[in-house]
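Entry 14. Ran structure prediction on the chain below.
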Amino acid sequence: MKGAGWPWGRRWARPRALKAAIPALLTSALACSPPESGRATLDEAPSGGQVASPEPALPDSSLILAIDWYTGVAGSVDDEEARTLLQESAADGDPISTMWIARVHSRGRMGFPQDTARARELAAGVIDEIERSAGARVPEAMFLMGTAYDEGLGRVVDHEEAVEWYRQAAEEGHILAIHNLGNALSAGRGVPEDPSGAVRWWRLAAEAGDAVTQLRLAEAYEAGRGVPPDLDSARVWYDRSANAGNSQAREALARLGAASERP
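Output, structure tokens:
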């Protein structure tokens, strides 16, 4: 197995610049208040009193590594290694890992076959526990609540609610939440369309090693969407994404190379 001895929680040890940039982006592009459910720390008892919530579910080290290989934060993208680690982490029924299994089947991610029915069935069995952990400010659970509302996994689709959960996870430096905020702003899904805001969020994730946001940033520079057109910057980000293993980035570099050779 790759990554033996990999420090647990590596993906939370973000550069100081990333942590410093997030508050300004939240203020400028996504000034919205969190849902009440996201701040809950106590459950109402049937008698009307309050009881302490159960201990929140936390991601285990195998899941953390799986996500790092999936995104490229580990240094390159390796879906096979990511699948092995994710299946290992979900073997004992861990709710966060199970929700991740639902997530990858929802859209056919990480080399898993797309199976929407299975994704919804798995999500339905763990979503309440995921929401409790999200209410306890567990970043992975907050991100997964965003996925739940974005893709209809255990919750009715609500893109505005999805953005709010992604925002809360992004506050904690969660790379895929930052990635998805950029996607939402680019598409105008759950928030007003804002291509330049999308680029700012994508850049944070891209600089942390997320290969897909490196690709999205390159595409933005090539198209001049959200930033002035800049083929040199596009090539830089396509190159970083390609080196991490992204095939679309490799194809884009070949296309740009061929275009530059035309008379």
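The first strand starts at residue 42 and ends at 44. Will compare against last week's run tomorrow.
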